[in-house]
Predict the 3D structure of the following.
Amino acid sequence: MKTIDDLQVAGRRVFVRADLNVPLSGGAITDDGRIRAVVPTISALAAAGARVVVASHLGRPKGAPDPQYSLAPVARRLGELLGKDVAFATDTVDDGARATVAALADGEVALLENLRFNPGETSKDDAERGAFADRLAALADLYVGDGFGAVHRRHASVYDLPARLPHAAGGLIATEVGVLRKLTEDVARPYAVVLGGAKVSDKLAVIGHLLQRADRILVGGGMVYTFLAAQGHQVGDSLLQEDQIPAVQEYLREAAERGVEFVLPVDVVVAKAFPDLGTKASADPQVVAADALTPGVMGLDIGPETRKLYAAKLADAATVFWNGPMGVFEHPEFAEGTRAVAQGLLDSPAFTVVGGGDSAAAVRILGFDETAFGHISTGGGASLEYLEGKELPGLAALEDPA
């Protein structure tokens, strides 16, 4: 896979496919981590004299312009981080985009409007997707893929466009792939994995793959209640995917056969109702044993004894991968489990990887120093699919000869 160091970019239009899919509230960016992650690549290209054309998706518009998903706030924030004006094209491939790109001088940067405002970006029809890729290719001379959070998508700007232009990986993708190889090839042991999040169905495939690699797997979040139910425990009104119980039981059996330690909570923090994340009003939390949940309460975080247990299981690890919060971390009464895992990673001598998505957001929201972790991924779904052993279309496209 070539990198930007292999390209001659001075005076040339370089299309950078970034992942600027940041959370917005009232038109304001609430977490700019993904923007900051791509700044080094854009800065390097601009400093080398490239005319940089940045493109990304944001949210899930229905293939047509939708003001709530405009990248205009992102253009402003990107300009602040770069320390220079970023021209903003109000469309993706039409008159606005063509004029904005044509006006770029060497070292200048433009951002196109949301790629998903065009139905060709996400189309399952190869011809429609290819036609959109052709129009994007007309805006550039070179292609740099640096949107790791989108490389698991077979989309026009991720998969089809690199085939139409000389291409290379940006610094972010090169770093992400290097880190993920440390989690799959010649892994330093003990190798501990912490998995959380809401639905166990979202993580079953990666669990199956990790059973062949990890030494221990720690489980939290809403998904843990399906594991507890699979062990025969009552889980009250907690999130439960009953249809997944047989699969979970099979994974627990396989883990035992392989000698992989599955670590589940010994206590949990419960409440009678889901907390109000707007007002942060008290939900009257209580701590109960993990095998003592009763009807009328729902588990919303791992308990204090479990936090100590999980910290101990991370303390001697050499490699740790964490994906998914331990509870409803957005509410202060149910954030301590996620905080304890993050602190456990920091206290461990291990090479630590925070696997993007809500885990990365939690690190920032809870006030941790991002630079203290070994790596914070920008692509939760992409990271998981890589660990599942799947081929990621965006990476395959970059690996093809230019």
The two ends are 9 Å apart (CA to CA).
